[in-house]
Each structure stands twice: as structure tokens, then as C-alpha cells.
Sequence to fold (343 residues):
Amino acid sequence: MREQGYRNAEIAGVLGVHRSTITREIARNNSHRHGPKSPLKEVLPPNRERQAYLWGYRPEHAQRLAESRRRRPKPRRLVDDPLLRHVVAERLRQRWSPAQISAWLADNFAGMPEWQVCAETIYQAIYLQARGSLRELVDDALRTGRKARKSQSRAAKSARGALRGKPWVTEDVHISNRPAMVEDRAVPGDWEGDLVIGRGGRSAIVTLVERHSRYVMLGALPVDRSSPEVIAVLRRLMARLPEHLGRTITWDQGVELAEHRAFTDATGCTVYFCDPHSPWQRGTNENTNGLLRQYYPKGVTDFTTVTQQDLDRVARELNHRPRQTLNWDSPADRIHQLLNQAT
Fold:
């Protein structure tokens, strides 16, 4: 079609692609020497002559260019240069990181591009053992001792971050191991919890909300929000309930529940921890905390002046509000139904 004088947009319309696809293909794989020799140049309409013969294009020539660009395998610096590989290997044995080696080469061999190698090239030489350049060092090449590259997907990062640096968040109490029946809210007894922080970060209260009924319980923290104090408040709140209504609590990764094992041993209620920075995994509790700000505005409330009686009064008001998600029943109605059924 190009030889016949059609514009790029017309060719793209026939092929069912965007015209930029045709333009890029011709720009990448053109041949100037082919265009002016076409016998059709003399018979083309004047308005198409420049478009058709600005560049020449032949599919055989374009195919050769494309194949030359994607030829594999590409040469690898640490495979083809044994001296460079030896220098890199020696520094890996001295526990240098790939980034340090790359910077050292750039500093000591400035102006010698054949001696420049980026950190990623070294990592690939270590990890891609099938290509072999540094496989003899794979057991101790990196200070981390890692022998394979870790996935960089969002899910993998989230899972790694969930367990990093917080020894109380072990794999068995991560939210990924929470029983599946908790997710569908069909069975009562699963709670979400958090702290609501007061003015200046100097005070707090405990909030708990049951996932099935949306029933709220609040606990005062008159002393501080250390783990023993928070655990003591949680035990008092859960003691108000029948045992079958206190199976699990889902919490964020705050240090206030670092001693959650003691709570579980005393109550039989297992604590599960969310991923970092994932409030939607406690969506019911986050919504409840927003409702509490009607009573305790953010940034101005000092919770050391709020008594347990005050919190119980606010919880009663919240629990007697009809909720659309409960078909306009109130959380108090639902919890009473559950208690009557149990009786």
C-alpha cells in the first residue's frame, strides 16, 4: 500500500492498528535508498508524492533490521571478560556489595568503559546460574546469603513487609492465616480492634467492633497505651461476652499488642495482624472510629479525662443506631438475637 501511495493513516485503517504504529515501523526500519527508485513515483498524485517517498520501505530490509536487534543471547560482560570477572569475584569474596564494586570500578578505571559494570550486571551473574559467570560464588557472594532474586510484585512486598522488624507479627498470626469463615461475616464472634489517639498523641482509647453485628465496645486507657495496659483492657471487655462471641480479633501492627500471646492464653481469643498500611483490612473498625469522632473530635480530645462510664454511654448510643447494612436493625438488636439464640 505504501508503494501505491497510500498515507500511513489509510494503511493503519486497513490493518486495524493506530497510525502511530505504522509511522514508528517506517521510522525504525526504513531504507532511504529504496524509495526514489520506485517506478510509481512518476504516476503518483502530487499530494501523495512526499508522504510516499520521504522514506523508502521494503519488508525484507525491515525484517533483517528487526532480527539483528533482537538477536539472543546478548554478550555478557562477566562471561566474556575473565579478567573483569576475576576482579569482581575477588571483591565479592571480601563481602563487597555489587553497588560498591560498581562504584569502585567507575572510580579506579575512569575513562575505560570496558572496565565499567553496573550493579545489576553483577546481580544477574550471581542469580542466573545457568549462564554461569559467578556461579562458583553463589553460596556466599552476597552478604544476605540470598541465592535467588526475590519477587518484586506488590503482593510479595506486602507479605515481606508484614513480618519485617516486628517480632510479635509472626506468620501464624498474619491475616493471611485467619480462618476463611471470618471473611464472610456469617458467624458471629470475630472482632476488629484499634486505638483511637487523643490530642498530641498523649492519650488513647481501645475500640472493638464485631464484624457480624457491628456491635461496639470501648475501653478507657487511663494510664498509658503500653502492651500490658491494652491487654488488660481487652480482657475486661471480652469478659463481658459469652465465650463463643470472642473467637478472633483483627488488629493493625501496633506495638500495643506485642504481648498478644498472653491475651490469647487467658481468653482463648486469637489475635491476627493486618498488613502494614492496610486499614481496609479492618474496614468495619475504621468506619466505627470515624463515627467516634462525632463525640471525640480529632486533635482536641484528651482521653485521660474520659471515663469508662462515658465510653459505655457512647457505645450504647452507637449500638442503638439502626444500620442500613443490617437491614435497619441496630447492632444491639443483632447481639441480643445472638444471645437469645444461644440461651
